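P.,

For your records, the input lines for the assembly:
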Amino acid sequence: MSTNNILLEVKNLKMHFPIEEGLLFKRQVGAIRAVDGINFSICRGETMGLVGESGCGKSTTARCIAQLHKPTGGEVNFEGKDLCRARKQEMLKARMDLQMVFQDPYASLNPRMTAGAIIGEPLLIYSKRGILNYTKKDIQKRVEELMEKVGLSRYFVNRYPHEFSGGQRQRIGVARALALNPKLILADEPISALDVSIQSQILNLLNDLQEEFNLTYLFIAHDLAVIEHISNRVAVMYLGVIVEIADSKVLYKRPMHPYTKALLSAVPIPDPAVERQRKRIILEGDVPSPDRERTGCYFYDRCPNAMPDKCKNNIPQLREVEEHHQVACFLYFDP
Amino acid sequence: MQTMNNDLVLQVTDLRTYFNTDDGVVKAVDGVSFALRTGETLGLVGESGCGKSVSCLSVMKLIPSPPGRIMSGQALLRGKNIFDLSADRIRQIRGGKISMIFQDPMTSLNPFLRISTQMIETIQLHQGTDKMQAKDKAIDMLRLVGIPNPGKRVDDYPHQFSGGMRQRVMIGMALSCNPEVLIADEPSTALDVTIQAQILEIIKNLSVEFGTAVILITHDLGVVAGMCDNICVMYAGRIVEKAKVDDLYQDPKHPYTQGLIKSVPRLDKPGKQRLYSIEGQPPNLIDLPDVCTFYPRCEYAMDICRQKYPPEFVTDGRAVRCWLYKEEK
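C-alpha cells returned:
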C-alpha cells in the first residue's frame, strides 16, 4: 500500500445528527452519533466492503464521503483533496469522479424521466455548467453506449422506469453512475432489494465493469457472503465505529473481533450438512441506540468476552495487530 | 409420501388461486400440492411473486375477494377441508389451529393496543379462559420467547419494542394457543443477521417443544438449509421441485433449483470465481401459456418444453416438474 496509490482516505470522520427540542426556539438536547470517528483508506482499483447491521452508520459513511451530508468533523481526502473543506466548484469537479449507486432501484429513479434522460442527466448537467462539452447528439450516443455496457437494449432508451423490472432498474442506476467515467463508485446496498437470481447478475456486472474501467468500489451490504465475494478488503462497522478491517480472505478465515465472529457465525449457509455442524454465537439483546457518548468499548453490552474494567472504561482504538489486519479490541492489546 | 395418514396435519391438493386484474387473470398459484406432517418443518422457497405467500394465505382463506379467487383445490386440516367451512368456523381455526407470523412485525401488531390486550384477546377467544388466566398465559409465552422482564413488558405498546423483540412477541402470540400448524412468512427477512439467528433459533426450539408443524416461507436458501426437513421450490405459481433438504442441496434436479443454489455466494467456500447467474427474469403471470414457465431461462430447454407443461415426475421420493426426468419414470 504505497501512499500515492490511495484514492480515498477517511480520517476521524464524524457525523452527529442533532436531536432538537422545543417548537419555536429549538435547542439541541443531544445527538445521534451515526458515525463516530472512523478511519480507513481505499486504494485505486480495489473493492472495499463495508458491513454491519442496520443503523450502524454504513450508509451515513457513504453519504458523508459524497458530501450529501456535511460531516460534523473529520476529513475525507479524495485524491489528496479534503472534500469537507472543498469549495463548490471544486466539489462539483470532484463529484465527477465519485458517483453513487443506491439501494432501492424504485426510489432512486425519477418516474417521470425516461431511461435515456436519467442516464444522460449527469452529462447534461456538467455540459450546462461548462465543465464538459457534450452536444445533445453526443449525449445520446454515450447513453446508448452505456446501456449496452450494462446489459440493456438500446431500444429501451425511451421507456420509463416503471416499465423495467427491479434488476433492469438497478442496471439503469449503474449506467447513470458510470456516465461521467468516475474513479470511485459508492455502492450503497446495490443488490439488497433484488431477487436471488437477479442479485448474481448485478454482482457479475459490477465485477465486469470494474475490470473494464479500472473502477474502485466502496461496496456496502449487510450480507456477509456477498461482501466476501466482491471485496478485497472488508471493514466491519458497529454502532458508528469500525471494529475490524482486514483482507477479505483473512477476515473470513480468522476473524478477531468478537462482533465479527458473532456476525459470521450468524450467517446461514445454504448447505444442510454444514449447517447442522456449525456452532452459532448468538448475541444477547439488540444494538443499543447511538444517542449517547460512550466511555468504553461500543460493543461492551453485548460482548461475550467483555472484561469489566478494561472494556468498560477505555475505548479501544483500531490498531494493526497483524499485517493488514486492524482490530479495535482489548483482547489483543492493552489499553 | 402420503401413506402415513394418521400424522398428516395439513394436506393441500391442487390449489389454484387467481386474481382478476384489468390486464387479465393473474394465476398467482396454479396447481400447488403439498403435505405437512406433525413436527415437520416444510420450507417454501422462491423469488418474489412466485406464489409462496399467496399459497399460505389461501390455506388460511385470507385472500381478499375480489380480486382474488380460490378456483379449485382442497386444504385438508386433519382430514377436514378448510374451504368447505363457514366463516365462523374458519375464524376459530385461524390463530387457533393454524397461526401465522408475518414478515414485518410492526404492521402486524396493532399500534394502538398494549401487547397484553392483543394477546389476551387471542387466548380468550380460542381457549375460553378468563382474563387473569389469559394474562398469565401471555406472560408465560413472552418468557418462552426470551423477552426480559415479561411481567412488566406485557403492558407495553408495540412501538416500545425493537424489531427483533416485536417478532418475538409475534411468535409468542402465534404459539399461545398451541396451534398445529405455524406458518412463518419470511419471519426473519426484515431483521439483521444476528437478530435473525436469534429468531430462527426460537422458532426451531419452540416447534420442537410444542410439536408444531411449521411452514417456513423464505427466499433465503441459507435459512431453509438450517431449519427445514423438506423443501418445496416454487417458480411462477407452481412447485417445481419437492425434496428432502439434504437431497435438494446435494443433488438439485430442476434446472431452476440448480441455478438458484449456484448463484448464491457462499461464506464457507470463498473464492473470486464468477457467480453463476440465471439469465433473464421471472415471467409475467398474466395469461401464461401451458408450457414450461422456466424454459426461456433454462439452459437445457428442449422442444417439448415449449409445447406442454411438465407433469410431476417422481423418482425415489423426489418430485420434479421438468421434462428432463421423463425417462427416469
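Two observations worth noting. The CA atoms of residues 6 and 268 of chain A lie 35 Å apart. The two ends of chain A are 27 Å apart (CA to CA).

Regards
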